[in-house]
């Protein structure tokens, strides 16, 4: 039926987009990364999750959110009643940015120019997917989606409606939870994150 044909067109569009992104030189991050980490998930997904950038594990696997932050995200989504396998999962920046520290590669934050240049790809993914909801996981995702004026600390837990854009649910990045040392603080923040994610259930 037409729904199936549309899904096929979306799948083809995303495949083509990924192949184009594999040779992207809009910023310099492709030079040191192992490979592009593009978005992944069903083309018919109603919810798109947007992270910051691939980490060490994602850079090696070529898949988004497969490392420690990804495992935590999976657990929190499940607790919130969201099926990750029905979501399209992607990042604001699609190459791993790092500083070598001995044998280790330490995550380093993408700058405004890198986020802006990569936003073209995220925009193209959203144009194809036309989701009911986009979940911004942290400040980099939010900056890429809605620009410099919108702050996580102010808008956390809100679903923002912008013109010519799917609604955006604002929350933190799961890596933030991994950095909290105090056990009680970590537990409370994790519960808050699950409460934020639960606001996406109605869009599933
Ligand atoms: N952190 C992110 O923002 N994205 C990933 O894919 C993995 C870790």
Automatic annotation (TrEMBL):
What biological process terms from GO does the record include?
DNA repair
Q: Which UniProt keywords apply?
A: 4Fe-4S, DNA damage, DNA repair, Hydrolase, Iron, Iron-sulfur, Metal-binding
Example of a GO MF term: 4 iron, 4 sulfur cluster binding
Which residues does the UniProt record annotate as the domain Uracil-DNA glycosylase-like? 38-198
Q: Which SUPFAM superfamilies match?
A: Uracil-DNA glycosylase-like
Tell me which family the UniProt entry assigns to this protein. Belongs to the uracil-DNA glycosylase (UDG) superfamily. Type 4 (UDGa) family.
Q: What is this protein called?
A: Type-4 uracil-DNA glycosylase
